[in-house]
C-alpha cells in the first residue's frame, strides 16, 4: 500500500514538471491527466485509511475474543513466586488474554486434590496434584479432559510414565509437570562404602551404630513385592470408577517379599520413616528428591545417591528392589465459559512446557517430565535425579489406587514391625491372603 502511494505521488510530480514545459493544448491534456491522478491518489488514500481501520477492528476483535474473567491457580508453596512470575510473562506475551486476572495461591498437591473433590465450584481453575489422585478427581468432576489440540504435543514431548499417570481409561485428563515422584537411596559414603545390597547396607549401618530409614507403608512396601515379581494394579473406567483389582500377593513370591520386610524391620539399624527432616543419626535413608537439600546439609561431603539395592530372598534368589514412579500434574477444572476454558488450557500448556519445566528445575529443583528438558546438562548432572532416573528402570508408573488400599497397606506395615515378627510361614501366608482379600475388595 505504501509503495503504491509513493508511485502515484511520483507520477503526479512528474506530470506537473511536464506541464510546466508544454504548450496550451498539451498543457490542457496534461492538466486533465493530473486531475485524474489526483483523484486516484484520493481514492487510494481513502482505501488505505479504510484498510487501516479494518485491521484495527480485527485486532481489537481478536484481543476481546476471549472475554474477561478471573482465573485462580493453586500450586505448592515452594513454587508460588515462580509461578506468578511465569504467568506474568505469559500474559504480557499474549495480549489476547489480557481480559483475565490470574491469581496464584499456595495449596499443596495433596490438599489441592482433597479440596477440589470436596467442593469443585469453590476450587481453583488450574491446580497441581500428585498422579495418584487422578481417578478420584475425574470421578468427582474436578478435571476436564485436555484440549484436543494439545493432546499430541503432551504425548510426544513428555516421559511415557507421566502420560500414563495423566490418563484415565483412554482419555488424557491433565498436563504432566514433573517426573520426579519416586524414591531411591541416599547414603553416607564414609559409612556405606557399598550400597549395592540391602543386607550390606544394614550390616554397615549396624557396625557404625548408624540408622537405616525406610517407610514400610503402602507407597514404599511395593518395592519388596514388585521386586519379587508380584502385581498390584487397579483398572478404572473413563469416569474414574475402579472396576477391577489385579493382585497376586497371596503367592510364593509374595511370601518372599513379606519375609524380607520382616527381616529388615528386625535389624537394630532399622527406623521406620522416609522424611530426612525427621531422621537422626542415619547413614542411609530411602527418600525422594524433595529432601535432597536436607540430606546434603546433613551428610555434607559424604553425601551420595544410588538406585535402590538388591536383596537376597528366603528362596536364595537375588531381587532388585522396585517401586512406583510418579509425577506431579496440572489439571484444569470444567468451565461453563468456553472462552475461559480456552485460556485455562493455554495457560496450563505453557506452565508445563519445556521452557517452564527447565526454569522450574533451576529455581526449585523439580525434575522435569519433558523429554528435552531432561537432557539439559544441569538436570543430567543432578545426583538425586540421576539416581531416581536409574531407579525408574525398575519401577512401574503409579496408576490409580483406592483409599482402602493405602489404609490396609499401612496396617500391614504395622504388623511387619509387630505381631508378624517371628511368625510361621503358615501365619504369614494367612496374613497375605487376608490382605489380598481386603485390597481386592477395595473400590
Topology of helices and strands:
Layout: H1 2-20, H2 24-64, E1 69-75, H3 80-93, E2 100-106, H4 109-118, E3 126-130, H5 134-139, H6 148-157, H7 160-165, E4 167-168, E5 171-172, E6 175-176, E7 184-188, H8 198-208, E8 211-214, H9 218-225, E9 232-236, E10 242-247, H10 252-265, E11 270-272, E12 282-287, H11 292-299, E13 303-306, E14 310-312, E15 318-320, E16 324-325, E17 328-332, H12 338-351, H13 354-364, H14 371-374, H15 377-381, H16 383-392, E18 396-397, H17 403-416, H18 425-440
Parallel strand pairs: 1-2, 1-3, 8-11, 8-12, 16-18
Antiparallel strand pairs: 3-17, 4-5, 6-17, 7-12, 7-13, 9-10, 14-15
Helix pairs in contact: 1-2, 10-18, 17-18
Q: Which features would summarize this protein structure in a list?
A:
single chain; alpha/beta; D-Maltodextrin-Binding Protein, domain 2; five-stranded mixed β-sheet; 18 helices; elongated
Amino acid at each position: 500500500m505504501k509503495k503504491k502511494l509513493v508511485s502515484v505521488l511520483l507520477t503526479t510530480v512528474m506530470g506537473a514538471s511536464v506541464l510546466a514545459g508544454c504548450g496550451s493544448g498539451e498543457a490542457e491534456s496534461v492538466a486533465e491527466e493530473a486531475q485524474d491522478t489526483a483523484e486516484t491518489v484520493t481514492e487510494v488514500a481513502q482505501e488505505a485509511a479504510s484498510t487501516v481501520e479494518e485491521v484495527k477492528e480485527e485486532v481489537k476483535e481478536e484481543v476481546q475474543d476471549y472475554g474477561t474473567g478471573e482465573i485462580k491457580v493453586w500450586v505448592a508453596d515452594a513454587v508460588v513466586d515462580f509461578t506468578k512470575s511465569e504467568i506474568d510473562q505469559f500474559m504480557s506475551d499474549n495480549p489476547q488474554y489480557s481480559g483475565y486476572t490470574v491469581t496464584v495461591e499456595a495449596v499443596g498437591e495433596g490438599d489441592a486434590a482433597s479440596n477440589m473433590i470436596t467442593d469443585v465450584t469453590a476450587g481453583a481453575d488450574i491446580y497441581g496434584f500428585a498422579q495418584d489422585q487422578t481417578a478420584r478427581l475425574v470421578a468427582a468432576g474436578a478435571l476436564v479432559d485436555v484440549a484436543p489440540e494439545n493432546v499430541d504435543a503432551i504425548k510426544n514431548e513428555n516421559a511415557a510414565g507421566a502420560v500414563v499417570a495423566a490418563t484415565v481409561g483412554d482419555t488424557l485428563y491433565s498436563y504432566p509437570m514433573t517426573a520426579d515422584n519416586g524414591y531411591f537411596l541416599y547414603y553416607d559414603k564414609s559409612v556405606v562404602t557399598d550400597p549395592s545390597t540391602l543386607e550390606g547396607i544394614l550390616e554397615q549401618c549396624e557396625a557404625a551404630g548408624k540408622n537405616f530409614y525406610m517407610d514400610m507403608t503402602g507407597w514404599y512396601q511395593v518395592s519388596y513385592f514388585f521386586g519379587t515379581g508380584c502385581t498390584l494394579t487397579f483398572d478404572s473406567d473413563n469416569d474414574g470408577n475402579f472396576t477391577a483389582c489385579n493382585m497376586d500377593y497371596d503367592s510364593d513370591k509374595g511370601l518372599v517379599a513379606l519375609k524380607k520386610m520382616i527381616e529388615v524391620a528386625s535389624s537394630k539399624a532399622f527406623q521406620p520413616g522416609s522424611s530426612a527432616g525427621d531422621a537422626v543419626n542415619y547413614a542411609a535413608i530411602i527418600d525422594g528428591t524433595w529432601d535432597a537439600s536436607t540430606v546434603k546439609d546433613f551428610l555434607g561431603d559424604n553425601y551420595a545417591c544410588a538406585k535402590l539395592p538388591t536383596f537376597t530372598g528366603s528362596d536364595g534368589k537375588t531381587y532388585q528392589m522396585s517401586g512406583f514412579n510418579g509425577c506431579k500434574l496440572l489439571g484444569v477444572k470444567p468451565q461453563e465459559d468456553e472462552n475461559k476454558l480456552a485460556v485455562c488450557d493455554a495457560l496450563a500448556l505453557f506452565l508445563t512446557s519445556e521452557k517452564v519445566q527447565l526454569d522450574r528445575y533451576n529455581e526449585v529443583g523439580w525434575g522435569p517430565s519433558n523429554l528435552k528438558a531432561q537432557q539439559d546438562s544441569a538436570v543430567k548432572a543432578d545426583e538425586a535425579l540421576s539416581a531416581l532416573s536409574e531407579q525408574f528402570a525398575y519401577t512401574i508408573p503409579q496408576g490409580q489406587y483406592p483409599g482402602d488400599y493405602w489404609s490396609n497397606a499401612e496396617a500391614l506395615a504395622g504388623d511387619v514391625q509387630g505381631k508378624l515378627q517371628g511368625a510361621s510361614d503358615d501365619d504369614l501366608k494367612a496374613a497375605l491372603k487376608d490382605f489380598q482379600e481386603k485390597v481386592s475388595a477395595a473400590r
